[in-house]
Amino acid sequence: MFKRLSILGYGAFSYIVFFMSFCYFIGFVGNIWVPKGIDAAATMPFWQALAIDVSLILLFVVPHSIMARPAFKNWLTQHIPHAIERSTFVLSASCLLIILMGFWQPLGGVVWQVENSNVIIALYSIFTIGVCLVFLATFLINHFDLFGLRQVWLAFRNKPYTNLKFSIPFLYRLSRHPLYLGFVIMLWAAPVMSITHLVLASLFTIYIIIAIQFEERDLVTIFGEKYRDYQKQVPMLIPWFKIRNKSTTTKVKAA
After folding, report:
1. Based on CB atoms within 10 Å of each CB, which residue in 38, 50, 70, 208 is the most buried?
2. 253, pLDDT greater than 50
3. At what angle do helices 195-223 and 46-68 cross, to 10 degrees?
4. Could you give the CA distance from residue 95 to residue 21 in angstroms, rounded to a whole number?
5. CA–CA dist 75, 64 (Å, integer)
6. Beta-bridge partners for 113
7. Is residue 100 within 8 Å of residue 56, measured between CB atoms?
8. Beta strands of the chain (E only): which ranges?
């Protein structure tokens, strides 16, 4: 019982760290609510600050990518219970994000700055849509499984974990990765685009595009032709609208 309670507590702690760090990240990118936003005043020479920022992004994306791969998950679960593998990924990624925000160095300079109040409101509205899109996308595919809570809850109840079925709910019929699309919208919908912000937005967008390629390779391995058919039906990131044959838009679930 103590072991199962410990697993549940670890999963809950990991989720709390994620939720708090992501909420701070929203304020960090949007320069709202938090004591240190992305556009604080520069405190060191440009190239030194840029080197630190690029290093921080690499420190986040490289472990994040490695830990998301099935080979690493198989290795990790030889040393920790399967039930906390996802929570460990979530906690590690959250800690790396906290490090990135804590040590991020402003670069100074402005690429664009919107003065019109209506446009500013519109951009913050788009930013909010991006945030909502991220959260909504997670709930459509099972928020609690994605962040490890379902796994630790099942372990606490002494029940085996069952894989989620492959389905195509709502937003996933318009974009294969609406969660990533929400992130991209968050990163770029800015009334003030400083050089600092541009660096973060550009590098994270590049990472997202690269990460999708690895993720989809894994999904094809898991779901086979079902996912290949899905790739043919739905755009990777940005939705487009066209008339589709009804036979190609049938909801797909794994057997």
Report:
1. 38
2. no
3. 10
4. 8
5. 15
6. 192
7. yes
8. 110-113, 192-194
Nearest CA among 126, 110, 105 for reference residue 47: 105
Which three-class secondary structure state does DSSP give residue 189? coil
Alpha carbons 24 and 98: distance in angstroms, whole number: 9
Instruction: Count CA atoms within 13 Å of residue 28 on its CB side.
Output: 19
CA 211 remoteness from chain centre: 10
Residues sharing a CB contact under 8 Å with residue 205, sequence separation 6 or more, in sequence order: 184, 187, 188
Residues 6+ apart with CB under 8 A from 49: 42, 43, 105, 106, 107
Chain Cα centroid distance, residue 111: 26
**What pLDDT is attached to residue 80?**
95
User: For residue 187, what is the enclosing H or E element?
Assistant: helix 178-188
DSSP state, residue 84: G
Distance CA(234)–CA(174), nearest Å, equals 6
Tokens coding 245: 């044959």
| Amino acid residing at 65 | S
DSSP 41: P
Sketch the domain layout of the chain as residue ranges. 2-248
Closest CA to 223 of 178, 166, 164, 173: 166
Which 8-state DSSP code applies to residue 170?
G
Is the pTM higher than 0.85? The answer reads yes
Using a 10 angstrom Cβ sphere, with 0-12 exposed, 13-18 middle and 19 or more buried, the burial of residue 97 is buried
Q: What is the pLDDT of residues 153-191, one digit of tens each?
A: 999 999 999 988 888 898 999 999 999 999 999 999 999
Given a contact cutoff of 8 angstroms between Cβ atoms, the answer to whether 192 and 110 are in contact is: yes
